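Task: sequence design from structure.
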């Protein structure tokens, strides 16, 4: 059995293209498109639909797919149905694309954050399994509404959080269980300032760098501490000056979220700090990513950008990470099936297929960032945004009782 898939979005993460050219990043062939083409080769995916707003982008997308995927890897069919047509502009083309999907199919949403709720809601009402590239939504209220809808219709709703599939992050999560009460966590994640050109259509308008990058490590920590702790307050700080001058929109360059946690068993307090920036210089890695975790009985450190694997050519020096996406073919075939960027999509497709057959694959779904289990993530991100808008004031995440781990609402102090 295979599944029909609709991708809503045509940007970097789908195609590897932005503003008419190949992106200068670690995703030059995209992620979602090439993964679905390979899953179709493996018999898991049937039809592929890709939806954007500007039809005139599709000739270049098709050329890019043919040259860099079909002509590079053996047996890779890159055909897809597009919305809208080449000569059309249609900001609501995704409605037409959804209308042609049959219940039981899958939708992957890769659009600006403020559009996620409307699209995910429509897809769930259509009876489709839904994966949203992080963040799921920008508010706890919207998250709760979507989760209720998904559970009502017995549908899979998840956020694409590929750090959950990184073997280092997975192992760190397992080790953290044996380090006693949670005490302290620090994370840092950046992208080079030229990415602001890539994000110019939405940066500072529909979302910020915390929703875009901090979401990764916030999700990992919530996943790591699942059921044992809860976040109770958030305060946020920001630095400005570069992004606003570059794009002419008031926005933050760098955002730090400071979170107060409570260990539920002992009531011991803990803290985390999450920093994200999109004004970093170009370095050996497209994205600097690292974290430090401390429990009462030990600590862990991960430097995701540096895995001890480097390459020097006439074009320069780079720290390589094929653990995310491996584009180099093996004997002419795509061979990146074990990359954590690939697995985060593949697990969703396989879990969606199981749901389509009326089954639940617990082994697959426990690795996914399902909406039912990630409300703390959205609560932290939204509370951080509220704190920034209030000049750094503490924002409280409220619960129904002293033992609950599911946030009820957010309120500014």
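Answer:
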């Amino acid at each position: 059995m295979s599944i029909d898939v609709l991708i809503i979005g045509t940007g970097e993460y789908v195609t590897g293209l932005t503003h008419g050219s190949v992106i200068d990043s670690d995703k030059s062939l995209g992620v979602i498109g090439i993964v679905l083409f390979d899953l179709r080769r493996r018999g898991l995916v049937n039809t592929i639909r890709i939806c954007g707003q500007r039809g005139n982008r599709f000739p270049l997308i098709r050329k890019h797919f043919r040259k860099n995927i079909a002509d590079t890897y053996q047996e890779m069919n890159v055909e897809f149905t597009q919305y809208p047509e080449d000569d059309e502009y249609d900001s609501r083309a995704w409605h037409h694309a959804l209308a042609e999907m049959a219940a039981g199919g899958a939708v992957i949403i890769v659009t600006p954050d403020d559009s996620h709720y409307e699209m995910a809601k429509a897809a769930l009402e259509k009876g489709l399994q839904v994966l949203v590239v992080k963040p799921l939504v920008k508010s706890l209220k919207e998250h709760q509404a979507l989760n209720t809808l998904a559970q009502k219709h017995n549908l899979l709703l998840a956020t694409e959080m590929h750090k959950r599939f990184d073997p280092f992050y997975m192992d760190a999560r397992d080790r953290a269980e044996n380090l006693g009460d949670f005490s302290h966590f620090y994370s840092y994640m950046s992208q080079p300032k030229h990415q602001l050109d890539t994000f110019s259509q939405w940066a500072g308008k529909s979302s910020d760098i915390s929703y875009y990058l901090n979401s990764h490590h916030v999700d990992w920590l919530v996943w790591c501490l699942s059921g044992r702790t809860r976040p109770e307050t958030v305060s946020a700080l920001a630095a400005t000056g570069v992004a606003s001058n570059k794009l002419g929109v008031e926005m933050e360059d760098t955002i730090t979220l400071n979170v107060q946690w409570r260990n539920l068993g002992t009531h011991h307090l803990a803290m985390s700090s999450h920093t994200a920036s999109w004004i970093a210089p170009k370095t050996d890695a497209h994205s600097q990513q690292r974290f430090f975790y401390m429990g009462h009985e030990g600590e862990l450190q991960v430097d995701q950008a540096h895995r001890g694997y480097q390459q020097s050519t006439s074009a320069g020096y780079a720290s390589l990470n094929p653990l995310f996406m491996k584009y180099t073919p093996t004997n002419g075939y795509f061979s990146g099936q074990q990359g954590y960027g690939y697995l985060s999509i593949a697990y969703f497709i396989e879990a969606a297929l199981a749901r389509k057959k009326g089954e639940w694959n617990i082994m697959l779904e426990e690795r996914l960032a399902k909406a039912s289990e990630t409300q703390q993530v959205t609560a932290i991100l939204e509370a951080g945004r509220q704190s920034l808008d209030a000049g750094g004031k503490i924002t409280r995440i409220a619960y129904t009782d002293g033992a609950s781990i599911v946030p009820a609402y957010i309120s500014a102090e």
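The chain has two domains: 3-161+334-371, 164-321+373-412.
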